[in-house]
Amino acid sequence: MSKPLYKLSASEVVALTKSGKLSALIARVQERDPVVKAWSYFDPEIILASARALDQIPAEKRGPLHGVAVGVKDVIHTKDFPTQHFSPIYENDHPELDASCILTLRASGALIFGKTHTTEFATCQKGPPTSNPHDNNRSPGGSSSGSGAAVGDFQVPLALGTQTGGSTIRPASYNGVFALKPTWNAISREGLKMYSITCDTLGLYARDVSDLDLLADVFKLKDDVPPPSTPLDLTKAKFGFVRTYVWPKAQPAVTSAWEKAKELLVAAGAEVEEVDLPSEFDNLGVWHRNILHMEGQSSFLGDYLTSPELLDPWVIKHAINDDKTTRRVQLDSYDNIARLRPIIDSIAAKYTALITPSVTDEAPVLEEPLRFTGDASFNLMWTVLHLPVVNVPGFIGPNGMPVGLSLVTPRYTEQSLLHTAHAVEKVFAQGGWKLE
Q1: Structure confidence by residue, pLDDT tens digits, 72-85
Q2: How many Cβ atoms sit within 10 Å of the Cβ of residue 284?
Q3: Catalytic residue at 2?
Q4: Domain residue spans in the chain?
Q5: Are 409 and 388 in contact (CB under 8 A)?
Q6: Looking at the domain 5-282+326-431, which fold is it?
Q7: Is 143 a catalytic residue?
Q8: pTM here?
Q9: Which of 74, 213, 305, 306 has a CA-to-CA distance to 9 between 20 and 30 Å?
């Protein structure tokens, strides 16, 4: 095989595991982790023991992810690895049960490869030790910092993240990889450290769309009306480019990618038009923040009452409701957002997909002590509206860093979204970014 073993996709690994050649990934992590620092916990002995157990499964009983290495964000419970939430409160804490998503992966034959770094409780702007594999002076994004970096650095083909604001899509853009944030609650969140019950969503990382297809199948992300089995004909596709109320934050790296994407899609035969959302959607950032304040308080109150001296100040602000958000404001935010969900579904349904920025800019330069993980402004509304989103890489910013754009479709249309992403991936690949 011409490519190095650690560069294999998940689909290729499934075939390769029958010959048992997975040591290349362990060697890759051991070589690169001192630089990228994607892992909060990595133990080759546990990995090898799990791999030996998988080897004992008869070929006819092997799952669709047999032997595929998956990195797991360290806010997701795993019974064989500690779950520490990047918090001193949970240092070396070992849950007794796997999260529901881990049970599903194990039943499908996946090899849990270790725990990836996160910000504290997947909440804070202060980043963990992880750096961007394409420029170690820049952030990998957050809060799914280690998962995005590990996939972008060919340390694992697949990884799990979570998203409450932009914690899956933003790292995907910064690291030049694909990521799917499914419809809210389409994948069980049982066994994840909760931040916002209204927004928290399990996220999926891969280096190509076919691997996201594999994960979507494993997690039973099925549309009521599945897409055709034939590739999308772009000459019959129509894309709605949505700037959103956050557009003034878009930097040249993003505006250039935006214009180039329109140009490339038109050249491929697709129809594109800019979409102006009703003015009510301009309030989503405020409503999202109100929800996080109140749901964050209920989520982190116990940690605050138990160990306030060990918490990041950002977590404390939530736990004590430092912004004095009222229940009336919370209810108004819930009700207004709920009213907009069917409206955005109907708008998105008019297009093959909506296209919107994944980020405001290239990955920011890391500056101590904050290690800022980047601006999630372009992601917030889609998270709180519960729509599925996929980051598609393809573009390069002025500093040589990857920039992605997001495809968005109505709720519970993950198969259609990925079907579209296959075609868009090939078009965006002309934008210059290629994961080497």
Answers
A1: 999 999 999 999 99
A2: 24
A3: no
A4: 5-282+326-431
A5: yes
A6: Amidase signature (AS) enzymes (3.90.1300)
A7: yes
A8: 0.97
A9: 74
